[in-house]
């Protein structure tokens, strides 16, 4: 079998043209002919399904071919009569939303034909969808009508010069795609498993979903959401600060369906609360090769940016909103996955606050509202981030990113507990001490209610231990000078701050700790040599200066059996 020859054939324009689909869908017998050779259509496409062709070298080709195969293989079983709906004939293949998911990457000279060519195959009632062939309306208007027919009365932006729809909608998350069969089966189906979100039924088994091969394949980690007003779930993927629509209308497993008619949602009992704000981008011309996408993201955001005189600040505030909303959604599904976007939102806010006069900022976050468009926009952002459990999330994020202005803004409200723990049971002070953000540590220590020795997470780490471990001498000094930290406190692994500093070779921190009267240089000593000490850790890692410092204090025993194979410098 000459695989390259087969793939060359599959790259022919015939497989890419949108009007070909209607011809294939209407046919009751198909013959594939290339030059003098010909083969029965069912046999040809069944054979393609059986072959293990290297589609990975041909981005986007497999969905194109498999979607045509889905129609072609049904030709022999097709009725001689078409279905009549509202005075029109229909091939009644499936719902329009599913047809669009499968075929929107097919080509047409006129973009409007990418929708019109599918109407004759749709099982939807045109009287309900409002979609009729009309070449007097623009592509942008038609595309918007299509989105509304599938998702309901959502906010949609479209353009005549691009096949992109930007949608804003409230919604909920039904689950996350946990398993995907990368191989499209012989029937053109893609099998995936969706792990249900706790909002639905945390005890339920993860159901398998069987979808027609979509123009863009579903991947592990994609989210399944239900948008307010939509009849079927939508599968989406986070990209930068927005969500890409992968499958706009996904059929649910039979066990989730409740026998509703086509004009009703199939999921009415699963979710009636829509807590999240989604910014969704449906891009029909999406290049599957990320390296070829150029400035696509910047161009798209340029279309959405406000054109008002305050566009600079408003654009930044919109960016914060996008990063924050997308990060909150992702974090609520998988805690670690949303952190990056939430941090970006805080960093943008830090940039804004750093370039804004301090006097107007004094009122932000308090009960009264500032006047002026700029302050109203900033107040909206503060209100947005305060919705997160009283502001603890942004304070922890500010500690990680070193965003002093944001941390000060949050603390000045008097509404944020500086000792609050995040999802990992870590306090803002612990995070700032670990990252080496001196100004954040100083700010937090100036707060009256701060506990400088609070233990964080299951490993019982303290800010002093983390600062010592990472060599942040100035922070170690600040923490010791509070007089409120236990300098010999140990973590889950029985490691003191001195031991952390000695193990990692932080000479200046070791010297600082040894100058503190309360520090015990021989902490961990055991006559049988079964415990670590600062000296044993320094010797093991070859930190000679630290070994000399520890020996110099004259309080470190030297008769431990595990030293005998290591060279200890003479004191």
From TrEMBL:
PROSITE patterns: ANK_REP_REGION, ANK_REPEAT. It holds the Pfam family Ank. InterPro entries: Ankyrin_rpt, Ankyrin_rpt-contain_sf, Dendritic_Spine_Reg/Scaffold. This is Acb 4-hydroxyacetophenone monooxygenase. Keywords: ANK repeat, Monooxygenase, Oxidoreductase, Repeat. It comes from the Eukaryota. ANK repeats lie at residues 390-414, 459-483, 530-554. GO terms for molecular function: monooxygenase activity. It comes from Fusarium flagelliforme.
């Amino acid at each position: 079998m000459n695989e390259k020859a087969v793939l060359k054939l599959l790259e022919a324009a015939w497989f890419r043209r949108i009007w070909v689909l209607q011809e294939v869908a209407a046919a009751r017998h198909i013959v594939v002919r290339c030059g003098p050779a010909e083969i029965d259509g069912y046999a040809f496409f069944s054979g393609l399904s059986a072959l293990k062709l290297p589609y990975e070298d041909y981005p986007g080709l497999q969905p194109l071919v498999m979607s045509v195969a889905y129609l072609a293989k049904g030709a022999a079983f097709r009725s001689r009569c078409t279905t009549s709906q509202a005075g029109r004939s229909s091939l009644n293949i499936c719902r329009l939303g599913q047809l669009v998911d499968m075929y929107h990457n097919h080509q047409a000279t006129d973009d409007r034909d990418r929708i019109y060519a599918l109407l004759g195959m749709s099982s939807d009632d045109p009287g309900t969808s409002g979609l009729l062939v009309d070449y007097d309306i623009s592509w942008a208007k038609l595309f918007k009508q299509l989105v509304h027919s599938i998702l309901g009365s959502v906010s949609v932006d479209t353009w005549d010069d691009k096949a992109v729809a930007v949608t804003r909608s409230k919604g909920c998350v039904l689950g996350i795609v946990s398993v995907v069969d990368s191989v499209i089966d012989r029937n053109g189906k893609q099998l995936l498993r969706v792990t249900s979100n706790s909002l639905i039924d945390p005890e339920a088994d993860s159901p398998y979903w069987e979808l027609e091969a979509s123009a863009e394949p579903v991947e592990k980690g994609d989210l399944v959401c239900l948008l307010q007003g939509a009849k079927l779930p939508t599968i989406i993927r986070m990209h930068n600060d927005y969500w890409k629509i992968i499958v706009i209308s996904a059929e649910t497993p039979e066990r989730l369906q409740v026998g509703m008619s086509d004009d009703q949602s199939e999921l009415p009992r699963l979710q009636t609360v829509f807590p999240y704000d989604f910014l969704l981008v449906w891009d029909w011309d999406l290049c599957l090769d990320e390296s070829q996408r150029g400035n696509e993201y910047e161009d798209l955001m340029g279309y959405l940016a406000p054109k008002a005189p305050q566009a600079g600040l408003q654009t930044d505030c919109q960016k914060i909103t996008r990063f924050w909303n997308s990060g909150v959604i992702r974090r609520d599904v998988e805690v670690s996955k949303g952190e990056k976007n939430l941090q970006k939102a805080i960093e943008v806010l830090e940039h804004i606050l750093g370039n804004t006069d301090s006097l107007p900022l004094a009122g932000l976050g308090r009960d009264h509202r500032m006047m002026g468009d700029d302050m109203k926009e900033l107040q909206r952002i503060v209100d947005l981030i305060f919705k997160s459990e009283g502001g603890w999330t942004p304070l922890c994020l500010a500690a990680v990113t070193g965003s002093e202005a944001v941390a000060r803004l949050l603390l000045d409200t008097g509404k944020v507990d500086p000792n609050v723990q995040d999802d990992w049971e870590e306090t803002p002070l612990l995070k700032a001490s670990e990252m080496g953000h001196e100004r954040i540590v100083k700010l937090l220590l100036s707060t009256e209610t701060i506990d400088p020795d609070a233990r964080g997470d299951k490993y019982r780490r303290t800010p002093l231990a983390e600062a010592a471990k990472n060599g942040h001498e100035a922070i170690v000094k600040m923490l010791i000078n509070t007089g409120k930290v236990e300098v010999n406190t140990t973590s889950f692994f029985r490691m003191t701050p001195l031991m952390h500093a000695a193990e990692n070779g932080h000479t200046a921190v070791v010297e600082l700790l040894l100058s503190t009267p309360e520090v015990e240089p021989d902490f961990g000593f055991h006559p049988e040599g079964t415990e670590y000490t600062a000296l044993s850790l320094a010797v093991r890692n070859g930190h000679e200066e630290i070994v000399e410092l520890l020996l110099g204090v004259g309080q470190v025993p030297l008769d431990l059996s595990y030293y005998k194979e290591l060279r200890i410098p003479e004191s």
